[in-house]
Design goal:
Elements lengths: L1 H35 L50 E6 L4 E6 L15 E8 L9 E12 L3 H6 L11 E5 L2 E12 L2 E12 L2 E12 L15 H11 L3 E2 L3
Antiparallel strand pairs: 1-2, 2-9, 3-4, 4-8, 5-6, 6-7, 7-8
Length: 247
């Protein structure tokens, strides 16, 4: 009986040892499995940096140009030896001046309106230039007389309708005194623009005159009122070329 109980105890001890060994082996396998299991953690891709913003180009400041002073216009004498097309040249060596005048202007059949004692030259247009109008004539006249001073020049034999020369105007380096006036007589009108200057010891006068008649003197519808503007331009074109003459 005792032998049977001893064998049972031995068998039970053996079984417990095998169980302990089995448990130990299982634990060891678990530990080894934990050490050899690959790391399945997924790494996050690197964060994409935000796109760089290109700087907005700033306009380059442009310096303002320095103000340029306008040159003072200076009248220059005509230096060409040949007349401008459509013009003739008049030269006076006694009083040392010259100017250009339109070829349509004539010195024949022209009654000038010069004021000074010496009548030098007259160029103009007759009524044939503007038919069926109240235009009578237009004349560019030059006259002269001795004078000791500019004051004497400006007060001698004033043109009709002019009481005083008040305005200065430089034309081709010659300083003129100018005045406008108007005269009338027996249905006739005379619009006058006069220029005077002292050259050496002579007073020189250039005078522009437009002579028209009263439109009321004609039967209605037979003539028209003349436009004086283009005629003044022709006369002023002559005056703009007036200059000293040097041989």
């Amino acid at each position: 009986m005792k032998k049977t109980r001893l064998q049972s105890n031995r068998l039970r001890g053996t079984q417990q040892s095998w169980v302990a060994l089995a448990i130990g082996a299982t634990v060891l396998q678990i530990l080894l499995a934990g050490c050899t299991t690959p790391n399945t953690q997924t790494s996050s891709p690197p964060a994409t940096p935000p796109p760089q913003q290109n700087p907005v180009p700033q306009p380059t400041p442009v310096p303002e140009p320095a103000p340029v002073s306008e040159p003072t216009p200076v009248s220059q004498p005509i230096k060409d030896t040949q007349p401008t097309p459509g013009f003739n040249r008049y030269t006076n060596s006694e009083y040392n001046f010259q100017f250009l005048y339109p070829i349509e202007f004539d010195s024949k059949d022209i009654s000038g309106y010069a004021s000074l004692k010496e009548k030098v030259i007259d160029f103009g247009l007759t009524s044939k230039a503007y038919p069926k109008t109240n235009f009578s004539d237009a004349v560019f006249s030059v006259s002269a007389q001795p004078a000791k001073s500019i004051d004497e020049c400006l007060t001698a034999n004033l043109p009709e309708g002019i009481t005083k020369f008040k305005t200065k105007q430089t034309i081709n380096d010659i300083e003129f005194y100018t005045a406008d006036g108007m005269g009338a007589a027996a249905g006739n009108r005379y619009d006058v623009r006069a220029y005077r200057t002292l050259m050496d010891t002579n007073c020189i006068e250039a005078i522009e005159t437009i002579h028209t008649t009263n439109i009321g003197n004609y039967d209605p519808g037979t003539v028209t009122e003349i436009d004086k503007a283009p005629i003044w331009k022709k006369l002023e074109d002559i005056m703009s070329t007036f200059q000293k003459y040097e041989e």
